[in-house]
Specification:
Shape: globular
Number of helices: 4
Strand content: 25-35%
Number of strands: 7
Structural class: alpha+beta
Radius of gyration: 17 Å
Strand order of the largest sheet: 6-5-4-1-3-2-7
Order of helices and strands: EHEEHEEEHEH
Oligomer: single chain
Distance between the termini: 49 Å
């Protein structure tokens, strides 16, 4: 099963906004194909709550189409103006079909150098502990 977000935007416009939405120590891959920008993130799953973590804030900038695809069926969620607008089983016809993959597959293809479209890996680093936490001390010491 694959879960991905698709929007009509440029990588540069979404890059910084998306990075702040990622969970600490997680990453995403953005692929630009013509007018569509596809986002594959580690934290995306078929749970609507996981999709909403990224889609709702991004939809305040531009309409976001979340696609959950498998061999038997599709679920398509359309987010706009910071909210879920509709749910259907019909994938937009102008969405490149090659963009319907899961994060692990797309990451493997990108690392092998097989993606010819402009793409970008974004990683949100885990927060580093302060000296007290690093040395195992509590605040009351």
């Amino acid at each position: 099963m694959s879960v991905s977000l698709h929007l009509k935007s440029q990588i540069q416009k979404i890059q910084q906004h998306l990075e702040s939405l990622l969970l600490p120590d997680s990453s995403a891959l953005l692929i630009q194909q013509n007018t569509w920008l596809s986002i594959y993130a580690e934290q995306l799953s078929e749970q609507i709550s996981d999709i909403e973590e990224l889609a709702v804030p991004l939809s305040s900038l531009v309409e976001v189409i979340a696609v959950i695809a498998d061999k038997r069926s599709n679920e398509v969620y359309v987010f706009s103006k910071g909210a879920l607008q509709s749910v259907s089983a019909t994938i937009p016809t102008d969405l490149p079909a090659s963009n319907l993959n899961d994060y692990e597959t797309v990451q493997t293809i990108a690392k092998a150098g097989l993606i010819t479209e402009p793409h970008l890996f974004i990683t949100r680093e885990a927060e580093k502990p302060g000296l007290a936490e690093f040395f195992g001390r509590s605040e009351d010491e």
